[in-house]
Amino acid sequence: METKYNLLEFSRDQEADFLIHAKQCIDRVFQPQQAAIFKSSNTIHPEHKIRFLALTDETQTVGVLALYRNLELDQNDTRYLMLGNYCCINDLDAAQLMLNRAEEIAKELNCTHLLGPMNGTTWDSYRFCLGNALPDYFSEQPCMTWFSEQWQANGFQVRENYVTTIDRKLVCDASEILEREQSLATQGIRMRTIAGENYTTELPRIFQFCTHTFQANVLYSGISEARFVEKHAGLNTYMHNETTLIAENSSGEIVGLIFCFADHFSISEKRLIIKTVARHPAPGYRGLPQVMGNFATRYAKQHQFDAVIHAFMHERNRSVKLSELFSGEVWKRYALFQKVL
Asked: Which of 154, 254, 287, 338 could be bridged to 180 by S-S, CB 3.0 to 4.6 A?
């Protein structure tokens, strides 16, 4: 079809050229503060990248898209081409040009599914926020409502659903949770803060815990210790010190963790964000996430927080039940999309 747009392609070695176009597009689509946040989280996976697309009009870039092949996610006859680093103006024709070209490349590579948005792995930015205009909260990548609409208009369907909940009641210290806390303490489980000076020294141990614990997560793939440390080292600046904890057993092994941040973006409310809560899969550590979540909620209530946000939970994850236990209500919804070729 005739088009006013020009589609450009870049090899994996032309990342710098692509990023110039990405910056132009992000600055065009988002307000300055959102653009800065989007750029900071819009990293490109160094191993899985294979090609980049950019769409321009007569004056500037109107859309960008990165293509990835993460072979760890392939299963049997299912081969994924992942689409990430997506940004596009509110124009269905522009989106169609990029997504159609991505589909052509997928078929050239004998891929059976398009999957995204995902910047290479679930360790990187992925998911679109679905159809609401609520303000962004800290650690959330900005997203325009039309991004998901463009993908759905081009034949993509929801593959996975995620939610963020918000708890403004701050109910804590239920008797069964306090009993479990005492039981775990009797087993020798101890919780301690890690934010601050000790954080970077703990990262190699946290890496071992996370890569073991998260292997059962949907669409999990591995990450090197060096990249894990690189991605997480800077978080210490933003962590909420008193509620970022690890739990250790009597042998000093990490068996649980909870990462929390103050919502630095919120003006109307004082909010605490529970970004990650996890436990060792062994049966003996059941109830540990509830105990750690209760600790954070209790702290928030005692220190005049207005709300606790439980961020980015897969709809089938136990964390959703945990949020319901602490009176969390669904606040935002997210989706990962796929298209079967």
From this structure: 287
